[in-house]
Design brief:
Elements lengths: L4 H13 L5 E4 L11 E5 L1 H4 L19 H7 L3 E2 L2 H25 L2 H7 L20 E8 L18 H13 L3 E7 L14 E3 L7 H9 L30 E3 L8 H7 L16 E11 L2 E10 L8 E7 L11 E7 L8 E9 L5 E3 L4 E4 L2 E8 L5 E9 L3 E5 L27 E3 L8 E2 L11 H4 L3 H7 L8 H4 L12 E3 L11 E5 L9 E5 L2 E4 L14 H10 L10 E2 L8 H6 L3 H18 L3 E3 L22 H16 L5 E7 L12 E3 L2 H8 L1 H10 L3 E4 L3 E2 L2 E2 L4 H11 L5 E3 L18 H6 L10 H12 L5 H19 L3
Parallel strand pairs: 2-3, 2-4, 4-5, 5-6, 7-27, 16-18, 17-19, 21-25, 25-26, 26-28, 27-29, 28-31
Antiparallel strand pairs: 1-6, 8-9, 9-12, 10-11, 10-15, 13-14, 14-17, 15-16, 20-21, 22-23, 22-24, 29-30
Helix pairs in contact: 1-14, 3-7, 10-20, 10-21, 14-15, 15-17
């Protein structure tokens, strides 16, 4: 198997960076190992190590190195080959039974699509574990993905009885035992708390096995932190709803993740920001100061252990309560040290702009800094903070006046009856000169965007065609394989006007690298992928005759016909990237993607995905970054900068917005207050846009307070463009007729999408085109709005097309 130079180089980079995305949840000092040895290897992820999630999270790289393979390549002797063989047989039989049952329960093509991403719970089984070794490792894996949410069933978020039994037995039997979590989201570990060593490996791409081997031998070390709270299932907030088919009420308001746990005084098993390494660190605050609008806190970090490593320092702020209730604390800044040798120290400065921590007051229609003391807290996790001082604001200030545009959610947000409190009267508090702040007023008046001459001359029909994607691939559109130009890419913006100076543009899915076909051929009729890579999303559920039909439709290579390759590099999943707490690392991973976009002529990468980890049950959490909007925004901005450093390459931040469940994902209605949307669910998008200027934003499938996000002018024009200053293009997620509009709410309509400022409906259909043209003729949408949308597309096409 010969790799191209770019594959070799990119895999080297991933292997070097990925350990920073991992962390130890527990450690007794038994690891790392000094040398390869005999190892007893168990668990569903030992041989079938998961690279990432399903659906858009897949990337078709040339190979995949499991933990079993990685250990063997590194010189370990596996003593449990028979157990791994026996387990494989158990799993395959269980999957056949489960798949057959799910086909019966979900008939027809709609049923197959509805099963997309559906995880099979880990089966119960009885296999002896009486094997020997110098050490033992149990690899616990969980798959999740696009289309389905997770459940609290055993073998999913909860451990199976078999897993609990074997993990506890191995922990007792072996002096050196490690539980490895090859997962994309939280699993409830409350029933295996006795385990002495737990590594959150996460899902790191095709080289996961080699990366684990490096960690096990101390060639690399974990230095990540949790980007979401891990707790016993019973301890998560019971306030907000999740998974309702039609309406899901976000009643918990701003109390998401650690903001809930810290405020009500419930200590999770492993808090947000927590993570152990092979060494220990001491964090010593060294004072704070005001520098204009910025608050700066200095800390000294010392490696007090016996192994090299990196530490993440986190700065939280407790905001005073006046008219608005507040969580106990919120993340305001974070910094990661360089590699520190035993005994070595370094100094970090954590800083933030006071305006960036303003709260949203929906009654005032403004972001405000209320009067009182803002307490600064420094620590290595959200539950390990020390108050170091405070900033006093004498009078409440309006920082930015906006307008309420989110709509009525129909309820008042929940507030805790009693909150965790701490005596801070002894702290040094500095009064801030608030005269340096000037109240900003957002201008929502219609701006006169340039309409390019080419667009003005278009007929109504041609103008409408630009507002609809390049459709026409039928079933392939459902699985994101509708491109005419790049085999396996998600879809295209129209190529109909290329000869007139309007380049077409190609989009490819993400978010763990480019999702395009591995191999293809081309002839006079176009490009033809070899194999059914894209059917991996739903292939397990296709009946035999359907699979055979699909196979017959494939264009097979002819003798002597040239086969083209476009193998891509899989980077760690979004949650793992965020766990690094290292924007520079994220930017380097984005650079890999941008480099491959240039190579394969892809204009838009449909990533990064940056929705909030509102619930641990969301099936797509693996591709999202965090429960915290600051961390999400900073990491997405860094990835975007890496991608867009490459000429002609654009990032597409998604899914805008409140896309926090997969249940009825095409048509569920998220009911969220104005404040919660602005402080939690939209804030990360704003940070990313201001810091990295992404070229595109993708709207989400769901409705927000009764309006499809793609049809929500308040979200798109008022917040995205006027408040955040976004000047790129807005596209929809892939909307397929027949999949939308089931249930309580109607499907989105193309003329409403265009009227809301959505520049292109993807991948589009003939019906969408006709609906838009009729909407224009009936006066439901103005020609001017379509010209504005098309002009944005024209300018972006020329900006990217001339460079790629």
């Amino acid at each position: 198997m010969k790799l191209n130079n770019y594959e070799i180089e990119h895999n080297k980079i991933v292997r070097k960076l990925a350990p920073e995305c991992t962390l130890l949840l527990k450690s007794d000092g038994a690891f790392p190992l000094s040398a390869p040895c005999k190892i007893a290897l168990f668990g569903n992820g030992a041989r079938n190590t998961l690279r990432g999630g399903t659906g858009s999270g897949e990337v078709y790289s040339r190979y995949n190195i499991s933990i079993e393979k990685g250990l063997k390549k590194s010189g370990f002797t596996i003593t449990t080959e028979k157990w791994l063989d026996d387990y494989q047989e158990v799993k395959e039989k269980a999957k056949k039974r489960w798949t057959a049952q799910k086909r019966k329960e979900n008939p027809g093509i709609k049923g197959i699509v509805n099963m997309m991403g559906l995880p099979m719970p880990e089966p119960e089984y009885h296999l002896p574990i009486d094997y020997d070794g110098d050490a033992a490792v149990y690899v616990l894996s969980r798959i999740s993905g696009e289309g389905s949410d997770r459940t609290n069933a055993r073998g999913d978020v909860r451990l199976s009885n078999t897993e609990i039994r074997d993990i506890l037995a191995l922990n007792l039997k072996f002096k050196k035992f490690m539980l490895v979590l090859n997962v994309g989201g939280v699993v409830d570990l409350s029933e295996v708390t006795e385990v002495k060593n737990i590594l959150l490996l996460s899902q790191l791409g095709a080289l996961s096995g080699m990366i684990f081997s490096d960690l096990l031998l101390g060639k690399a070390y974990p230095s990540g932190k949790l980007s979401t709270t891990w707790a016993d299932l019973k301890d998560y907030s019971p306030i907000g709803e999740f998974g309702d088919k039609d309406d899901t009420r976000y009643k918990e308001g701003i109390y998401v993740g650690y903001r809930y746990f810290d405020s009500v005084g419930v200590r999770p098993q492993f808090p947000f920001g927590f993570g152990l390494s092979y060494t220990d660190f001491k964090i010593e605050p060294e004072g704070f100061a005001i520098d204009g609008k910025n608050i700066c806190v200095n800390v000294n970090v010392t490696n007090i252990g016996n192994f090299r490593g990196k530490e993440v320092c986190q700065l939280y702020v407790s905001v005073p309560e006046a008219d608005l209730d507040q969580p106990y604390q919120s993340l305001a800044a974070f910094e990661k040290t360089k590699e520190l040798l035993p005994g070595e120290s370094c100094r970090l400065t954590l800083s933030f702009n006071m305006a960036d921590i303003a709260s949203y007051d929906s009654k005032k229609c403004a972001y405000v800094l209320e009067h009182g003391n803002y307490i600064l807290r420094v620590g290595a996790s959200s539950r390990d903070t020390v108050a170091v001082g405070g900033i006093n604001i004498e009078e409440t200030m309006i920082i930015r006046r906006v307008k309420n545009v989110i709509g009525d959610c129909g309820f008042e947000d929940w507030k805790p009856d009693h909150k965790n409190q701490e005596n801070t009267e002894h702290l040094n508090v500095i009064r801030m000169d608030t005269s340096i702040f000037t109240k900003e007023e957002v201008n929502y008046k219609e701006n006169h965007e340039e309409i390019v001459p080419f667009v003005r001359k278009l007929s109504d029909k041609d103008l409408c065609s630009i507002n609809i994607g390049s459709y026409g691939k039928g079933f392939l559109s459902i699985i994101g394989n509708a491109s005419q130009k790049v085999a396996g890419a998600a879809g295209d913006f129209t190529f109909a006007f290329e000869k007139q100076g309007f380049p077409g543009m190609v989009t490819a899915d993400g978010p763990a690298g480019l999702r395009i076909s591995k191999r293809y051929i081309k002839d006079k009729k176009g490009i033809h992928p070899i194999g059914n890579d894209m059917l991996g999303m739903i292939g397990d559920f296709l009946p035999g005759p359907v699979k055979k039909t699909v196979s017959l439709l494939e264009r097979k290579p002819k003798a002597g016909e040239k086969i083209f390759e476009q193998y891509c590099t899989m980077i760690p999943i979004g949650t793992a990237v965020a766990q690094s707490f290292n924007p520079m690392l994220a930017s380097k991973l984005g650079d890999i993607v941008g480099s491959e976009m240039e190579r394969f002529k892809v204009n838009f990468w449909l990533a990064p995905a940056m929705n909030i980890h509102r619930s641990i049950f969301c099936g797509r959490n693996f591709e999202y970054y965090s429960e915290d909007p600051l961390l999400s925004g900073k990491m997405a901005a860094a990835v975007t900068r890496g991608v867009q450093a490459h000429p002609g390459c654009a990032a597409t931040i998604k899914h805008y917005a409140a896309n926090n469940q997969e249940t009825n994902r095409f048509n569920s209605n998220s009911l969220v207050s104005e404040r919660a949307m602005r402080e939690i669910y939209l804030r990360g998008f704003g940070i990313c846009i201001r810091e990295s200027r992404p070229k595109a934003v993708m709207t989400s499938y769901n409705l927000l307070n009764g309006i499809h996000t793609a049809e929500h002018r308040g979200l798109i024009e008022d917040i995205l463009r006027k408040e955040y200053g976004f000047n790129g293009i807005v596209m929809t997620d892939w909307m397929i007729h027949g999949m939308l509009g089931s249930g309580k709410y109607p499907a989105p309509i193309s003329w409403k999408i265009a009227g809301a400022g959505g520049d292109v409906m993807m991948p589009g259909s003939k019906k969408d085109y006709k609906d838009l043209l009729k909407g224009l003729k009936d006066g439901k949408i103005s020609r001017k709005q379509l010209e504005i949308n098309a002009s944005r597309m024209f300018k972006m096409a020329n900006e990217l097309g001339e460079k790629l």
